[in-house]
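Quick one:
INPUT:
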């Protein structure tokens, strides 16, 4: 699955499958290595998605703060005079 087709939800679901397979103890050495490699890539993908969402939320909070400050500015501009 390419990153264009992948979603955070599908990546975490696949990670759960990988963990179940590894925990079962039935994977051979080569399969274990392949699963660990795939899992690492999925973890990195999910971390990137979470980081992007976090940055988006920070931007929204900053936009809200600016809007509140701008809304208060006309009423507080003449108070210090």
């Amino acid at each position: 699955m390419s990153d264009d087709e992948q979603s955070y939800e599908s990546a975490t679901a696949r990670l759960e499958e990988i963990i179940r397979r590894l925990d079962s103890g039935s994977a051979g050495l080569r399969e274990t290595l392949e699963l660990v490699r795939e899992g690492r890539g999925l973890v990195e993908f999910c971390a990137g998605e979470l980081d992007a969402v976090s940055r988006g939320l920070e931007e929204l909070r900053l936009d809200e703060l600016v809007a509140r400050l701008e809304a208060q500015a006309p009423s507080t501009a003449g108070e210090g005079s």
